[in-house]
Request: fold
Amino acid sequence: MSSMIQTAPKNWVNTACLLNRLGAIALIVSLVAAPLIASNQYYLNVLVLMALNATLATGLAIVVRAGRLSLAQATFSGIGGYTSGLLVMKLGMDYWPALLLAGMFAAVVGVLLGLTSLRLRGFYFAIATFTFSQLVIIILRAWTPVTGGMSGMFGLPVPPDILGISFLNARNYYYLALFAAALSVSASYACSAGTRFGRGLTVLGEDEVLARALGVPATRYRLYAFAISSFIGGVAGSLSAHFIQGISPSDIQPIASVFVVVMVMAGGANMLLGPIVGAVVMTAVPELLRASAQWSMVFYGLFLLAYVFFFQNGLLPLLQKAVYRIFNITVIRPEYSIAAIDRPAAYPTRRTAPVAGNIAHLQFGKMQCNYGNLAVLQEIDWKIENGCINGLIGPNGAGKTTFFNVVTGVAPLSGGRMLWKGEAIVPTPESMARRGVARTFQHARILENHTVFEAISLGAELPGSKPEPARLEWLISKLKLQSIRDVRSGGLTHYQKRLVSIGMAMASDCEVLLLDEPLAGLDDTETDELTQIILDLHQAAHNTVLLIEHKLSVIMRICSHLTVLDQGRIIAQGAPKAVASNEDVIRAYLGDE
Amino acid sequence: MQLFLQQAINGVMLGGMFSLMSIGLTMMFGIMKTANFAYGALYMIGGYAAFWASSLLGTPYWLSLLIAFVVGFGMGIAVEVIGFRRFRGNEDATLVFGLGVALVARGGSVLAWGSQTRYIPTSFAAYHLGPFILPSARIWAALASVVIVLAVYLIVVRTKWGRVIRAVADNSERAQLVGFDTSFQYALVAGLATGLSAVACVFLIPVFSLSPTVDDSALYTAMTIVILGGLGSIVGCGAGGFIIGVVTAFSFGYLNSTIAPMVPLLLLLIVLAVRPEGLFGRRERAV
Reply:
């Protein structure tokens, strides 16, 4: 069966895509052609500065997208500049290996800073990087015999010729800087849409809890991102220091790092070329206006304010929107869809064989979870039945969600044992996702900036399954999401978001699926439909399902085993009918006589 | 021994001044959960308000203080109403808004008033107590700090209005449902916090002087103390200021002056790494 729903929007999407490409090409062509038009030495200097700023900003965007605002990018550039300067001046090293070492040393410092501070969030991380940048300045100032103290180093040599190309010529230097910017953009692409690592990093920036539940190792990925970003910073800084032929602590004042942040934000951190546009605008405008340092500062400040009030996505998306309007293109809305897929008949084969014999996927022995002195779960002894739907019910505050959180490593396993296929483990979110435990959240967590298809595909890819198209399309059709397959998840209804979150969890080859109140807040029709979907998916995948739910009629209908929690303890367990007539359960729900 | 005692005295006085410098930031953090990166700039403008009042209008010292407070109060309400209110809950936007205001204010103040260092003429002299020197400006600043920090603490903990703003801080939506005008309370707190920071700046002019660049050092010192003490904890603000003051005094007393500034920074980095909620802050629970 093939369902064709409107073909026109497809062309619209193509036009938008074409315009995006044309825009990118126009930007690249103008960057390459710029020094041919601007012949004057002053303009050439500005262009070099611009290209290096673009490199720096593109590097910083990698960390920003991963959800950390660093106020130390200029510091890493300074570290790069000082490193290559010292290597060349004091050790007589050739410039090109020194450039590489400058980047590497900046990356090492970045890793060290990252190890201590990346676990801090938002404002705390910003302050940690800010403090770090102050420390570096003090060290550079104090270590006069080596770094030249307050006045810094001067007389740094211009990089030696390559293939007869002299870098004494500012135009050639510009192309060198542009090459660095291009490499930086490639790295940025690899750290966003280009690789699995990059896609994981992007999801991490959007929703850390969800990313970890999908198997993204948050700390490690952020550390890589920070190292890459610092490397780029170091290289850009070295190129800049050897262009100006000098470097001093005043070049890397905190304000310089703030300026790089402005470039990233202004251009649009979430778009590949955004930081380039930001760097071009923020470098060119003050220079063209011949603004003094103070006026540039005011300009940067006003720009930041304009940004935060009027265009929080950055200049590039703003520009995109304007161009779309001129060409009369509407960005795709739910009613337009490009789905035209043959529905695959069966559930594609699984990655892993089912567990043999009597070993449960999950088993708990005297498991306990405490927050401080508060015992949220105690004495949980439970061997979860493989391959069937296990219900988990209990009054509010009984510890049901906390139980899921312990299983997925979000809440602490404070005592007792948790066995995975017979082996005692200490769960972490990412390790459980990779073992094949998928979960949904009580409040559906979805990826607002991704389309339904992309989100479900990420749900397969990030925990380590292959996103096979046939399988994903099967899932999408089972979830009845075909008509909104290419719609951004952010604009969906409550029920649709639920479906997407279940799709993301089921997209991987999960052996155990944890569903946290999937039916909450749905009306009767939706409840019936989703209940059937859960049953269908379960029958196709033969996985072990744990279901928290308050709608008891559904629980009684689809669960083959039922567990009741009350005040952190299991008070009844067994076949649903038997449990339902258990007196303890009735008391827990209805209270004492 | 004499150096040790002199540095101890200096440290305590410096600590008082640091606490004074950070009380406004502490209030905005604790009550409004707002990371105010414009703090240093507003602090600096508050100082200039007093300076111009005293040098152009010849106002007496106490009146200059009052003018600084009023100007600060107005600026605090303005940034809250124009910016912070709209970005509450969005940490990055809050940070960026603050940075934007700070850049405009810093650049603008150099353009408007020049970058030279200014003082308000006072009759402060130094007291000599045996072998120890006690510059009176510092003593006054430290005393003002004790009075102001204590007053803020008492207002927040003991008064009826304090209960209201603590309720708003705890859960502004609930507080609104119960019938408090949270926007008004937020504006009031922002005004008071910024007003106090302006007063702090005036008290500290004789010690740290006044120029457009004091915004950086004020923001930076205040952030250090607020993080060390625990975001938003008023007791932490007092204690954090005291600790940083003593540490700074001793490191300048005993270390090479080029390396000494590193010590408080390292202390902050260690606190961030080991106990990011600060000495008096409460740990947030994940998820």
